């Protein structure tokens, strides 16, 4: 199966399929790819390493703890209401056309999402979910074309909208929204020795040239202000 075809079935961008394939995801069948994604994009990949008694080492000789052992090693988990409050600020910024402010707040929201608990289910607008998932979503994903971008949805509802044929589990949505590797800002890793990857990236670059957008701030789907056009023109 071609990676472009698999990307369409999974509802993700071809670049995402290529990256996951490099990490070991099978690309011969949809079923095997889905199994890999469910196994490797589980909630534990996007959560902070919270305190778990079963992970404590076996007791040893009595001694005074060192300073790093006394200080907390992780941030406390955030609540859905904190995430939703941050999402409201992003939504308001994007409605006003404040793209830079929206992107900065989106980066801050990703940090909050990385501290969520396993049962997190924040309700954000489709507009905010698109800002979080834009670089991951397939170009034909329904969420891009939903008229009411102000409607609220949970991660599970977004997973069904992102790929109706093979809905993403809620934890997969949160994994992509966290963007742990900052792919939305830095772009996906390059694989110049992979002919299929080179071909896909050439096609994607050709398509991106048709958009009035910028990948510098991870908002490839948003229009640029007119005064930015000369800066983004092809050399």
What order do the SSEs take from the amino end to the carboxyl end, as H and E?
Answer: HHHHHHEHEHHHHH
Strand content: under 5%
Mean pLDDT: 76
Coarse structural class: mainly alpha
Q: Largest sheet, if any?
A: 2 strands, antiparallel
Walk across the major sheet and give the strand order: 1-2
* The number of domains: 1
Basic shape: globular
What is the number of helical segments per DSSP (H or I, 4+ residues)? 12
| Beta strand count | 2
Rounded to the nearest angstrom, the distance between the terminal CA atoms is 37 Å
Radius of gyration: 20 Å
Low-confidence stretches: 47-60, 64-72, 213-222
Helix content: 40-55%
Task: Explain how this protein is built.
Residues 47-60, 64-72 and 213-222 have low confidence and may be disordered. This protein has helices at residues 3-10, 14-22, 30-40, 67-70, 80-96, 99-113, 126-133, 155-162, 170-178, 183-186, 195-208, 229-232, and strands spanning 124-125, 152-153. The longest helix is centred in the middle third of the chain and has 17 residues, at 80-96. α8 (155-162) crosses α9 (170-178). It is globular. It contains twelve helices and two strands; from the N terminus they run ααααααβαβααααα. It has one domain. The chain has 235 residues and is mainly α.
